[in-house]
Write a structure and sequence with these properties.
The complex is a heterotrimer of chains A (671), B (268) and C (427).
Chain A: H1 2-29, H2 38-57, H3 61-86, H4 96-122, H5 132-154, H6 166-188, H7 193-203, H8 245-252, H9 259-263, H10 265-268, H11 275-287, E1 289-290, E2 308-309, H12 326-330, H13 337-341, H14 348-363, H15 370-380, H16 403-406, E3 408-414, H17 422-437, E4 442-444, H18 454-458, H19 462-476, E5 480-486, H20 489-498, E6 513-515, H21 516-525, E7 530-531, E8 539-541, H22 555-563, H23 587-590, H24 598-609, E9 613-616, H25 619-626, E10 634-637, H26 638-645, E11 646-647, H27 650-654, H28 664-670
Parallel strand pairs in A: 3-4, 3-5, 5-6, 8-9, 9-10
Antiparallel strand pairs in A: 1-2, 7-11
Helix pairs in contact in A: 1-3, 1-6, 1-8, 2-7, 3-4, 3-5, 4-5, 5-6, 6-7, 7-8, 17-26, 21-22
Chain B: E1 9-13, E2 16-18, E3 25-27, H1 29-44, E4 49-56, H2 60-70, E5 76-81, H3 88-99, E6 103-107, H4 119-127, E7 131-132, E8 135-142, E9 145-151, E10 157-163, E11 166-170, H5 182-187, E12 189-194, H6 201-205, E13 207-210, H7 226-238, E14 243-245, H8 250-264
Chain C: H1 9-16, H2 23-34, E1 41-43, E2 49-51, E3 58-59, E4 65-66, H3 77-88, E5 91-93, E6 101-104, H4 115-128, E7 137-143, E8 158-162, H5 172-186, E9 190-194, H6 200-210, E10 216-224, E11 232-238, E12 243-248, E13 252-255, E14 266-268, E15 271-273, E16 286-292, E17 306-310, H7 317-327, E18 330-333, H8 335-339, E19 360-364, H9 370-375, E20 381-386, H10 392-396, E21 399-402, H11 405-426
Parallel strand pairs in C: 5-14, 6-7, 6-9, 7-8, 8-15, 9-13, 10-13, 17-18, 17-19, 19-20, 20-21
Antiparallel strand pairs in C: 1-2, 3-4, 10-11, 11-12
Helix pairs in contact in C: 1-2, 5-6, 7-11
Classes of the chains: A mainly alpha (671), B alpha/beta (268), C alpha/beta (427).
Chain lengths: 671, 268, 427
């Protein structure tokens, strides 16, 4: 009986799955077009899955192995099942035993894997979703166990008449369960949807450059520009269907593992944002309905079941609630921790900025001080509304060379808007001192410099960003320099990664940009700086998001600190897992209330590391962390630490030619 | 609010503003508040039509500024086109006489040109309409009478009833203008009509220069003897660095503070 | 003591002559007059003159004892009498036959001449007194009750007082009617208004345009200019304060505060004047329904002129709010107080909050982070109450009181309430 039943079951499940798949594809196709190389993407998919995805998943070894066993077992078992039971190859003389044996092995592996899945579900952490996900391990076991048992008679390991009678019916029921979850549910919206959507998401990812290739992968973190010249193109995303289809596909790929939720600073601070829920909200919007069936943690302070949406309805309600509340979108600090952690490589930050663009550009609803900051950027080229002519007032006594005078320099020192902030001026002075001691030939743009556009862009005002960026590009194109050095990672990121897209014919916008820590590290390595030994206490280092996760620079600041003779006490969350200071993405401007403050949590991390001083490399981080009341640690920028420790490089006295690459011994002596 | 008159028309007069620091063209602060008031009124009184009027030249600068108003959520703006240096009063008066909107909102004074703040008064005089300045909020419009709140210094308010048609001017006490959004600003249309050209001849004869810093008034002490003058001068110089009272009772501290508050005359 | 100091040359001579037998007694008598108690100079037993430096001198303005060797050894006493003398010496001026009239319409806020009004009157005097031989008269046109007693001392020659109830409140139409009558009857050469919102700025523009004249607004300086029609040239602020416009002074002048020095050297007649033909129109299209109660806490921070700002050191927020109410101050807060949820975000003062321009900024328990100090740069007077004498706010403050903020605030509230109570009784 099983022999006749199984093919029917398998093929009807496959047929239903195909139907579901076409429905799902139609749902995704509601999104706007996006040109993605289809065939090339599909061809690259296995590598993206096996290499890039598993690189992320592999951060949790147990889970990684579980997934390899379960998913690998399932894929093999499914293919073999179709061959053995569906096409009846199991009864062929030559192939039967081999295929059947492989099928047994695959389903056994899957069964073992699903045991581990079950074990994790016994006491699941809060970040995991419940509901249908709780039955997944049982479904996995039903499928693998059912297939395993149903294959035994085919191989003659059980008597053939086992395939009839009550037992067989029960087995068939188990197989139906398994098939239903694994094949039917895959395209009709069960937990296994992640496999189907995820595979296609990897193939048609909107940032193909994120994935490693044989030439090696590179980071892709810059936001994508809106085409403002096309008056018919939507400005940002107002309804789910305003996303591109592959973005919608990406949301659908979410496996609700909650890793994003676990690392999200806004969620931890009790602000109404849970990146996982946000992605699920988009899935709700994609198919239409209410979020009542969501079973994970909600956006803090926002009960589940009150929001609803449709593919063509507004995401943020014009009056009252819709799919998502605006505060949820404005809580994000764009720290990219969620994107970094997401095993499905979903681009949360892109989606959030897309939706913010709609709120700002179409509705004019940038909350709190947002509107004022944008007005200031438009009128004065800086977010504080300061007189642009006073950008260099802090350096009145420093006699900084101006690009307008010198026309060319080795290094263009990009000051950033910190030039207007009294605290950051100390950092800038320190940096200038370091550059002078190292005899770097540098110049500044002075009053020609404008805000890089970072804040405007993260607040969704793409128009202001592009205006600022184009003017900066035009200014930069007037001068010749080898590289830009800045102590502001936000400017660093925007200049280095986001201006390129705005280049116009004849005016390239590709710059070699260095964060000051990188540049100081280079100067030190070249022997142009020498430091007095460190006499202070314990020090820890806070990785700025826009330097670390956005630009992958984790090493240089640590190298500089090591050169200063500092032995770092790393915080628990450092490097690519560093927790945001709360200052990015315009979050201090939009200022969405939460239960805690993000910088307070970060200073607590500092306290737990036992350090009395936290070294930073970003004016935002400095401002946010210094703003913590009753902090246990002092906040100093790396440039300040370096400037304080400077001693005359011995080479100057010895040889009189400081530019010569100096003996490593000098450096070691200092150490 | 009871919508007594369906389809009330509100005309808002807007000018090209000027940022106080950089001098860039922008929507003028007070005029934008006027538009904000009109938009609030329209949302409360269904059927209200807002007609935004500007008399002046059409160029890149004015376009940037005027689109700033449109980005607040308006579909169009009526531009009475005149060459630079024309008197806007004549053009606006001519237009308003024809259009006869019951309520005209305007900023108190312009951020460019003479900025004398005479325009609302001149229009009121020419049209023979009542004028109220310092509008803070419109409460009701019933039977051709508008009840509104006028802003007094230090955040105080006065309730006024004004018979329509009327001109009401808005200053910094008006509600803060909403954000101007790029999308609506880009889509909105200009309805351009040419207007009377009456050059402001008087203005051209005046000498205009960037504002000088006004000298700070010295505390002139009329004293009988040189000694007294010296004493007064010395006590002024002594006030430069702050006075710190430590180890005083709370009452002594409070007396010192009270004395300063009274000197500054902020207690009322 | 008599106001007039009579000199007794003989006694002075004795006082100078240490060998005179009456020297000591005369000296003691003189000291008594001068107000000093103890003898500061006497002949010692060995015949050497002795001086007691503690008995001479006075406490200077900075709290340090000063000894004046000019002979006029004194403290505050002679100054008072000198002032009184100079007060008496103010020249009384009575312009019986004025060559022309300068009309001034002061704001009379709360029934009193504001500083701005007095500056206007000073300006009016300059215009009136241009030709010493043929001076003009300053006519002050006052509406409603006022509490000023010495109108002559601010340079007013003639007073025209419209005291009827219809002029009260916001009544631009009736006031305008009265002023047009004045124009018709008296035809002043100049009309002067303070360019203050809701006061002269409104009325002045109405009148000028009713009479079809183009006024000069925002005037802050006038200079004599023979080429100009009226003999004066003025400098006026234009374009939201970003331009200086130089033009001949017209008949109608709306001037800013500090446009001229107030009158203080002459005393004028302030003679009452009345004119006929004022027929107040009863038909008004603007009806004043009176003032509306407004919560002072609702005043925008950037506009407030007196801010009571609380920070981390404030423990009793109810008392703080009460204090703000009693003092009539707008509430502000430091970032910390906002973060901790004691105040709303729109109350935050500082570079990251609101930049305030208050005349008096009373900072309670705020240590003064750089961003906060940046935000209060433009405040005139900063008063700090803090427990920590070393904090940056104390360094910035014009007056700092070290102590428990709750107690000091409570004491201050008590005093203000007492003062208010007393005033109300008097009124």
């Amino acid at each position: 009986m099983l022999e006749t039943l199984l093919p029917i079951l398998i093929f009807s499940a496959l047929a239903l799955a195909a139907l579901g798949a076409s429905r799902r594809v139609r749902l995704w196709r509601q999104g706007r077009p996006s040109s993605v190389p289809i065939l090339k993407g599909l061809a690259a998919m296995p590598r993206r899955y096996l290499v890039d995805l598993h690189h992320v998943v592999g951060r949790d070894k147990v889970m990684s192995n579980t997934h390899v066993a379960t998913a690998g077992g399932f894929v093999a078992a499914a293919v073999l099942m179709i061959l053995v039971h569906g096409l009846g190859l199991g009864s062929s003389e030559s192939m039967g035993p081999i295929l059947g044996g492989l099928l047994l092995a695959a389903s056994a592996a899957m069964f073992v894997g699903s045991r581990f899945v079950a074990r994790r579900r016994r006491n699941p952490p809060a970040r995991l979703s419940r509901g249908p996900w709780m039955r997944l391990p049982r479904s996995l076991m039903a499928f693998s166990g059912g297939v395993f048992l149903a294959t035994l008679p085919t191989l003659g390991l059980l008597p053939d008449d086992f395939g009839s009678g009550v037992l067989a019916l029960m087995l068939a029921a188990v197989v139906v369960w398994g098939l239903g979850e694994m094949v039917f549910g895959m395209t009709w919206g069960g937990p296994m949807k992640h496999a189907f959507a995820g595979a296609l998401h990897l193939a048609f990812h909107r940032r193909p450059e994120r994935f490693s290739s044989k030439q090696g992968g590179r980071r892709s973190t810059g936001l994508k520009a809106l085409d403002l010249d096309d008056e018919t193109a939507p400005l940002g995303v107002g309804t789910p269907s305003d996303f591109t289809w592959n973005q919608l596909l990406g949301f659908d790929a979410c496996v609700q593992c909650g890793r994003c939720e676990a690392v999200c600073p806004a969620f931890a601070a009790g602000q109404p944002l849970n990146p996982k829920k946000l992605i699920q909200d988009m899935v709700v919007g994609l198919s239409g309905g209410s979020d009542a069936s969501y079973t994970g943690s909600p956006h803090p302070g926002k009960p589940v079941g009150e929001h609803y949406g449709t593919p063509y309805g507004p995401i943020v309600g014009l009056a009252g609630q819709a799919l998502v509340d605006a505060e949820t979108l404005w809580s994000c600090t764009t720290c990219r921790a969620c994107v970094e952690e997401c095993p499905m490589m979903i681009e949360h930050v892109d989606a959030i900025v897309d939706m913010r663009r709609h709120l700002t550009l179409e509705r004019g609803q940038t909350p709190n001080k947002g509107a004022g900051v944008l007005d200031n950027l438009i009128a004065t080229d800086n977010p504080g509304g300061f007189d642009p002519g006073s950008r260099l007032h802090w350096a009145a006594d420093l006699n900084l060379p101006l690009m307008a005078d010198v026309k060319q320099a080795e290094v263009l020192l990009w000051l950033g808007d910190g030039a207007f902030d009294m605290r950051n001026q100390r950092t800038l002075r320190a940096l200038v001192k370091v550059l002078r001691v190292a005899e770097v030939e540098f110049a500044v743009l002075g009053t020609e410099e404008r805000d890089s556009g970072d804040v405007a862009r993260r607040l969704g005002d793409e128009a202001t960003f592009q205006r600022l960026a184009r003017r900066n590009i035009a200014t930069l194109s007037k001068y010749r320099f080898q590289r830009i050095v800045t102590c502001d990672p936000h400017s660093f990121h925007v200049l280095g990664n986001e201006y390129g897209e705005l280049a116009e014919p004849g005016i390239p916008a590709q710059y070699e940009v260095r964060h000051h820590s990188t540049f100081i590290a280079e100067l030190y390595d070249a022997g142009r700086l020498a430091f007095a030994p460190w006499k202070g206490g314990r020090v820890t280092y806070h990785d700025p998001c826009y330097l670390g996760r956005y630009n992958g620079e984790y090493e240089a600041p640590r190298r500089v600190l090591k050169a200063l003779g500092i032995e770092l006490k790393e915080m628990e969350r450092s490097g690519f897992r560093s927790r945001c200071c709360g200052g990015g993405g315009g979050a201090p401007i939009t200022d969405i209330p939460g239960e805690r403050r993000i910088p307070d949590m970060r200073m607590n991390d500092v306290k737990e590391s036992g350090a009395g001083l936290v070294a930073v490399g970003c004016p935002q981080c400095t401002a946010m962390l210094e703003g913590v009341v009753d902090a246990s640690a002092e906040v100093r920028d790396i440039a300040e630490l370096v400037a304080d420790a400077l001693v005359e490089p011995p080479s100057v006295n010895a040889t009189g030619s400081p530019r010569e690459p100096v003996v490593k011994a000098t450096a070691e002596e200092v150490l | 609010m009871q919508p007594e008159q369906q389809g009330l028309e509100v005309a808002v007069l807007v000018s090209v503003g000027r940022h106080p620091i950089t001098g860039r063209a922008r929507r003028a602060e007070q005029d934008a508040r006027g538009v904000e008031l009109a938009l609030t009124l329209a949302s409360e009184l269904p059927g209200t039509r807002i007609n935004v009027l500007h008399a002046g030249q059409q160029d890149i600068n004015s376009e940037v500024a005027l689109r700033g108003y449109l980005g607040m959520g308006l579909n169009s703006l009526t531009l009475l086109e005149q060459p630079e240096g024309s008197d806007a009063i004549a053009a606006l008066a001519a237009y308003l006489t024809k259009a006869l909107p019951p309520l005209v909102l305007t900023g108190t004074r312009a951020e460019c040109g003479e900025g004398s703040g005479l325009l609302p008064y001149a229009l009121a005089e020419r049209l023979g309409w009542p004028l109220v300045n310092g509008l803070a909020a419109v409460e009701t419009i019933e039977n051709g009478v508008v009840t509104l709140l006028q802003a007094l210094p230090r955040g105080q308010r006065r309730r006024l009833k004004v018979r329509l048609p009327a001109i009401v001017s808005v200053d910094e006490a008006g509600p803060v203008a909403r954000q101007s959004a790029f999308g609506p600003a880009r889509r909105a249309k200009f309805i351009v009509t040419s207007a009377i050209h009456e050059p402001d001849r008087e203005l051209t004869q005046w000498h205009l220069a960037p504002a000088r810093k006004r000298p700070k008034r010295l505390k002139i002490v009329k004293a009988a003897s040189a000694r007294d003058r010296f004493k007064a001068a010395a006590s002024k110089a002594g006030g430069k660095s702050g006075q710190v009272l430590s180890d005083v009772t709370p009452e002594q501290g409070a007396v010192a503070i009270l004395k300063l508050l009274e000197e500054e005359d902020v207690l009322r | 003591m008599s106001e007039i100091r009579r000199r007794d040359p003989r006694r002075e001579w004795i006082a100078r002559n240490r060998l005179h037998p009456e020297h000591a007694s005369v000296l003691a008598a003189l000291d008594g007059i001068e107000g000093g108690g103890a003898t500061s100079e006497w002949l010692g037993p060995s015949g050497v003159i002795r001086k007691n430096p503690r008995a001479v001198g006075f406490i200077g303005p900075s709290g340090i004892k000063r000894i004046d060797r000019s002979g006029l050894q004194s403290g505050s006493q002679p100054t008072v009498s000198a002032m009184a003398v100079s007060g008496d010496s103010r020249r009384a001026v009575n312009i019986a036959e004025p060559a022309f009239l300068v009309a001034v319409v002061p704001d009379l806020i709360g029934g009193r001449l504001s500083a701005h009004d007095k500056d206007m009157l000073g300006l009016a005097r300059r215009l009136a007194d241009v030709d010493v031989g043929r001076p003009g008269a300053v006519v002050a046109i006052l509406f409603c009750e006022h509490k000023e007693e010495a109108l002559g001392e601010v340079g007013i020659d003639k007073v025209l007082h419209f005291n009827e109830a219809i002029y009260a409140g916001f009544a631009p139409e009736v006031r305008l009617a009265a002023l047009t009558t004045v124009e018709r009857e008296l035809a002043p050469r100049y009309w002067l208004f303070p360019d203050s919102p809701l006061g002269g700025a409104d009325l002045g523009r109405r009148l000028a345009l009713r009479l079809n004249e183009r006024p000069a607004t925002g005037v802050w300086q006038i200079e004599a200019d023979n080429e100009a029609l009226l003999g004066w040239r003025c400098t006026a602020r234009g374009a939201a304060g970003s331009l200086d416009i130089q033009r001949p002074l017209p008949r109608f002048v709306l001037a800013l505060a500090e446009c001229a020095e107030p009158v203080d050297e002459t005393r004028h007649a302030a003679e009452r004047l009345s004119i006929a033909g004022v027929t107040p129109t009863t038909l008004s299209r603007i009806e004043d329904l009176g003032q509306v109660a407004v919560d002072p806490a609702g005043v925008a921070l950037a506009e407030a002129e007196f801010i009571l700002s609380g920070g981390n050191g404030v423990k009793n927020w109810d008392a703080f709010h009460h204090a703000a109410k009693v003092l009539g101050a707008t509430e502000g807060a430091s970032r910390v107080a906002v973060d901790d949820g004691f105040m709303t975000r729109d109350r935050q003062v500082g570079a990251t909050g609101t930049w305030v321009t208050a005349r008096v900024y009373l900072a309670v328990g705020i240590s003064g982070a750089i961003q906060h100090l940046q935000g209060i740069q433009r405040c005139d007077k900063v008063v700090a109450i803090n427990l920590d004498p070393g904090c940056d706010m104390i360094k910035r403050a014009d007056l700092a009181v070290i102590g428990d903020s709750a107690e000091i605030l409570a004491a201050l509230v008590g005093m203000v309430e007492q003062r208010r109570g007393g005033q109300r009784d008097a009124a």
